[in-house]
Amino acid sequence: MNIGDAASRSGVSAKMIRYYEQIGVIPNASRTASGYREYEPCDVHMLRFIARARDLGFSIAEITELLDLWRDKDRRSADVKSLAQARVRDLRHKIAHLQDMADTLEDLANACAGNERPNCPILQRLETSETGEGTAFRRPPEKGFKERIG
Protein backbone atom coordinates (compact mmCIF):
# COMPACT_ATOMS: atom_id res chain seq x y z
CA MET A 1 0.00 0.00 0.00
CA ASN A 2 1.15 3.56 -0.61
CA ILE A 3 1.82 6.19 2.04
CA GLY A 4 -1.66 7.70 1.75
CA ASP A 5 -3.28 4.32 2.44
CA ALA A 6 -0.89 3.66 5.34
CA ALA A 7 -1.70 7.09 6.75
CA SER A 8 -5.46 6.61 6.56
CA ARG A 9 -5.30 3.09 8.01
CA SER A 10 -2.96 4.04 10.86
CA GLY A 11 -4.26 7.50 11.74
CA VAL A 12 -0.75 8.93 11.30
CA SER A 13 -0.36 11.62 8.65
CA ALA A 14 1.84 10.96 5.64
CA LYS A 15 4.02 13.88 6.74
CA MET A 16 4.58 12.27 10.16
CA ILE A 17 5.30 8.89 8.58
CA ARG A 18 8.04 10.51 6.47
CA TYR A 19 9.35 12.29 9.57
CA TYR A 20 9.44 9.05 11.60
CA GLU A 21 11.41 7.44 8.78
CA GLN A 22 13.78 10.40 8.53
CA ILE A 23 14.67 10.37 12.24
CA GLY A 24 14.87 6.58 12.43
CA VAL A 25 11.83 5.84 14.60
CA ILE A 26 10.60 3.47 11.91
CA PRO A 27 12.63 1.76 9.21
CA ASN A 28 12.62 3.23 5.74
CA ALA A 29 9.80 1.86 3.65
CA SER A 30 10.56 -0.32 0.70
CA ARG A 31 10.17 1.40 -2.65
CA THR A 32 8.29 0.46 -5.76
CA ALA A 33 10.05 0.39 -9.14
CA SER A 34 8.84 3.96 -9.67
CA GLY A 35 10.26 5.09 -6.33
CA TYR A 36 7.07 5.34 -4.28
CA ARG A 37 7.08 4.21 -0.67
CA GLU A 38 5.38 0.88 -0.12
CA TYR A 39 3.99 -0.23 3.24
CA GLU A 40 2.88 -3.58 4.60
CA PRO A 41 0.16 -4.30 7.19
CA CYS A 42 2.88 -4.75 9.83
CA ASP A 43 4.02 -1.17 9.13
CA VAL A 44 0.48 0.08 9.74
CA HIS A 45 0.39 -1.92 12.97
CA MET A 46 3.63 -0.26 14.10
CA LEU A 47 2.31 3.20 13.15
CA ARG A 48 -0.83 2.58 15.22
CA PHE A 49 1.41 1.59 18.14
CA ILE A 50 3.31 4.87 17.73
CA ALA A 51 0.08 6.87 17.52
CA ARG A 52 -1.25 5.33 20.74
CA ALA A 53 2.06 6.00 22.50
CA ARG A 54 1.98 9.65 21.33
CA ASP A 55 -1.62 9.94 22.56
CA LEU A 56 -0.35 8.88 25.99
CA GLY A 57 2.28 11.61 25.95
CA PHE A 58 5.40 9.57 25.28
CA SER A 59 8.24 11.49 23.64
CA ILE A 60 9.89 10.37 20.41
CA ALA A 61 12.85 9.01 22.38
CA GLU A 62 10.52 7.09 24.69
CA ILE A 63 8.55 5.75 21.73
CA THR A 64 11.78 4.53 20.15
CA GLU A 65 12.59 2.75 23.39
CA LEU A 66 9.09 1.30 23.58
CA LEU A 67 9.37 0.06 20.00
CA ASP A 68 12.68 -1.60 20.82
CA LEU A 69 11.10 -3.29 23.82
CA TRP A 70 8.04 -4.29 21.76
CA ARG A 71 10.25 -5.98 19.17
CA ASP A 72 12.42 -7.69 21.80
CA LYS A 73 10.75 -10.97 22.72
CA ASP A 74 13.24 -11.33 25.62
CA ARG A 75 12.24 -7.95 27.10
CA ARG A 76 11.56 -7.49 30.76
CA SER A 77 8.14 -6.11 31.54
CA ALA A 78 9.82 -4.20 34.37
CA ASP A 79 11.53 -2.02 31.75
CA VAL A 80 8.21 -1.21 30.08
CA LYS A 81 6.59 -0.52 33.45
CA SER A 82 9.44 1.80 34.41
CA LEU A 83 8.90 3.87 31.25
CA ALA A 84 5.17 4.07 31.92
CA GLN A 85 5.68 5.07 35.55
CA ALA A 86 8.13 7.80 34.54
CA ARG A 87 5.57 9.14 32.06
CA VAL A 88 2.89 9.13 34.79
CA ARG A 89 5.18 11.07 37.15
CA ASP A 90 5.91 13.62 34.44
CA LEU A 91 2.21 14.00 33.60
CA ARG A 92 1.29 14.44 37.27
CA HIS A 93 3.98 17.12 37.61
CA LYS A 94 2.62 18.94 34.54
CA ILE A 95 -0.93 18.65 35.84
CA ALA A 96 0.11 20.14 39.20
CA HIS A 97 1.90 23.00 37.43
CA LEU A 98 -1.13 23.68 35.22
CA GLN A 99 -3.41 23.57 38.27
CA ASP A 100 -1.20 26.12 40.04
CA MET A 101 -1.35 28.36 36.98
CA ALA A 102 -5.13 28.06 36.77
CA ASP A 103 -5.53 28.77 40.50
CA THR A 104 -3.33 31.87 40.30
CA LEU A 105 -5.12 33.19 37.25
CA GLU A 106 -8.51 32.48 38.80
CA ASP A 107 -7.49 34.35 41.98
CA LEU A 108 -6.33 37.31 39.89
CA ALA A 109 -9.51 37.31 37.81
CA ASN A 110 -11.59 37.22 41.00
CA ALA A 111 -9.59 40.14 42.43
CA CYS A 112 -10.18 42.25 39.32
CA ALA A 113 -13.27 44.43 39.57
CA GLY A 114 -13.78 44.30 35.82
CA ASN A 115 -15.28 47.78 35.74
CA GLU A 116 -14.49 51.05 33.97
CA ARG A 117 -11.60 51.92 36.32
CA PRO A 118 -8.00 51.41 35.12
CA ASN A 119 -6.70 49.49 38.16
CA CYS A 120 -6.32 45.81 37.39
CA PRO A 121 -4.54 43.31 39.65
CA ILE A 122 -3.97 41.01 36.68
CA LEU A 123 -1.86 43.61 34.90
CA GLN A 124 -0.16 44.62 38.15
CA ARG A 125 0.84 41.00 38.78
CA LEU A 126 2.15 40.61 35.24
CA GLU A 127 4.19 43.77 35.71
CA THR A 128 5.97 42.58 38.86
CA SER A 129 7.77 39.42 39.86
CA GLU A 130 6.82 37.17 42.76
CA THR A 131 8.92 39.33 45.07
CA GLY A 132 7.14 42.49 43.98
CA GLU A 133 10.16 43.87 42.16
CA GLY A 134 9.72 45.38 38.72
CA THR A 135 10.52 43.25 35.73
CA ALA A 136 12.83 44.02 32.87
CA PHE A 137 10.12 45.32 30.57
CA ARG A 138 8.88 48.88 30.66
CA ARG A 139 5.38 50.24 30.93
CA PRO A 140 4.03 51.21 27.51
CA PRO A 141 3.96 54.92 26.73
CA GLU A 142 0.80 56.75 27.68
CA LYS A 143 -1.73 57.67 25.02
CA GLY A 144 -0.67 60.84 23.30
CA PHE A 145 2.99 60.38 24.29
CA LYS A 146 4.24 60.58 20.69
CA GLU A 147 2.26 63.75 20.06
CA ARG A 148 3.73 65.42 23.17
CA ILE A 149 7.36 64.65 22.30
CA GLY A 150 7.03 65.72 18.76
UniProtKB/TrEMBL annotation:
Signal peptide (residue range): none
- Which InterPro entries does the protein's record reference? CueR, DNA-bd_dom_put_sf, MerR-type_HTH_dom, MerR_fam, Tscrpt_reg_MerR_DNA-bd
Q: List this protein's GO terms for biological process.
A: positive regulation of DNA-templated transcription
Q: Which UniProt keywords apply?
A: Cytoplasm, DNA-binding, Transcription, Transcription regulation
Composition bias (Basic and acidic residues) maps to 139-150
GO molecular function per UniProt: copper ion binding; DNA binding; DNA-binding transcription factor activity
UniProt subcellular location: Cytoplasm
This protein's GO CC annotations: cytoplasm
| HTH merR-type domain location | 1-69
What PANTHER family is this protein classified in? HEAVY METAL-DEPENDENT TRANSCRIPTIONAL REGULATOR HI_0293-RELATED, REDOX-CYCLING DRUG-SENSING TRANSCRIPTIONAL ACTIVATOR SOXR
Question: Per its record, how is this protein called by name?
Answer: Cu(I)-responsive transcriptional regulator
Which organism does this sequence originate in? Paracoccus haeundaensis
- Which lineage is the organism of this entry classified under, starting from the top rank? Bacteria, Pseudomonadati, Pseudomonadota, Alphaproteobacteria, Rhodobacterales
Gene name, Swiss-Prot/TrEMBL: cueR
